[in-house]
Design brief:
Strand content: 5-15%
Largest sheet: 4 strands, antiparallel
Shape: globular
Radius of gyration: 23 Å
Structural class: alpha+beta
Amino acid sequence: MKNKITTVLLLSSLLLTWNCTDLEEVVLDESLNPSTEGIDEAVAALAPVYAKVNDDIWRHTKYFAMQEISTDEAILPYRGGTDWGDGGKFSDLYLHVPTPGNAIMKDVWNGVTKHITAAVSAVAVLTPLAESDPQAAVFLAEAKAMKALFNHILLDAFGLVFVKDKIEEQSVILRKGEAVDYLISELTAVMDDLATVSAVGPGRMTKTGAKALLARIHLNAAVYRDPFGTPNFTTADMDAVIDYTNHVISSGEHELSAEYFEIFDDENHSNPELIFAIDQRADLGGHNRMAYFSMSGDFYGNPAYPRANGTDGPAITPDFYQTWVDAYGDVDPADADPRFHKDNLINEAGCVSAAEFEPDRGIIRGVLYGLQHDQRGDPFERCEGDKYVIDQVINRRSDVGAPVDHTLEVDFGEFSAHSNGYRVLKYEWSKNSDSGRNGGDADLIVLRYADIFLMRAEAKLRKGDAAGALADANIVRASRTARHTAPPLTSMDLDILYRERGFEFYWEFQRRTDMIRFGRYEDTYTEKTNADPKKRLLPIPQSAVDGASLLDGYLIQNDSY
């Protein structure tokens, strides 16, 4: 089991029944009233900031959908014509025509504002305690930094932040440059008061976490200041990116992982590449949805749990796959780049013990192999030595009776059957998930060390230092040595760096932000033709706008919605 910050997590598990007002009726405010009798006051104050963020925000149908299914990286069609229809919330997001009533917008907004309020409440309790308690002072810095992180999500997605220092105050809304300046000031004020990752782990906000987040904010600041125009990447912002990333590198707190997919393993909490991640444990509400979401509904990820299957959710688009083909030409991407795919399971008929059963990782193509349901009604077929039969997975939904064969073609029409589209299994399928959906042990990554080098590379490139950018990108490539190493890049420009970020960070909640910053969000790709730059910002949920309707001019809907 992972070495966790156990006190906070255990407390978090006690705080799952908060008494909250309905966020449909108010813009931000909630009343958090957990039962904390007998629990240290400082810990009790901080715990709600972190509690359930995996479910409230970093969930497959919430922030993942917002950041990935709105892009050229992931598409979720109506499988078989009906499955995943969900009122059009995924297809509308993908086509850049979401409405203020879109449930994904509402879910992300509600989750983020809930945790902003938890952070404000924590600050109120921790401020007097911090005057005499060094641990409370660290917690106070964490609460303020986490408030900045949550507000950064709002700025990136909806173009605003909420400024609020006391729970009884009405929040002030800032946009554009004022919002950027606010986030920077909040983080710089506390970064020296935070603990180190080596002291508390990547599941809490730390010195390097705050600096990495500051680098990300400065990198995107030009977009935030002028969300619908052509970004003006200033020298000052790029210098700040370089400065903060240099600080993270010189800290000695982090290392690049030799095996790319170990970054996303069940036991990744101790992986030194993680800077900040959403801490998960199977016995404390961790979910496995980042693994199960894309996988075939006929695929079962663990012999111990015969009901734990995938759900035929999103596939990568042909456009995103083509970026790999363009990069490596006649060489199969799986042979060229260790980030594309990792073979774990025999992809032929045979027998495997339970201990040896391990699904492939990365981008999943072609005929799918896996566990076999016994026609006699037993969970899985067995063979000699009490092993499990591995063979072609049979499609029991669209194309019933045929092998599940993931083809490149996927769209909203002809190619929307349950097996269409290449899939992604980046996070390890949890060995503790008895349903496929629950029981996750993998921490969900928000900031990691590879991004430090690629953010620095981008800042250097935007300042005209192509050689420096090339060197930084190749540091990341050269680090993945466990199986084979991708060939070094020989040149660098913005198109190459954008492609490289896609290879490194696919399925990691970053693509929408990257596409906007690189000027690619208005591109045409599979099924999507909308080129309106005002779709860079997403619609504020109508429930929030209506809740603020008594405050004239307080919460104004984004343009084009």
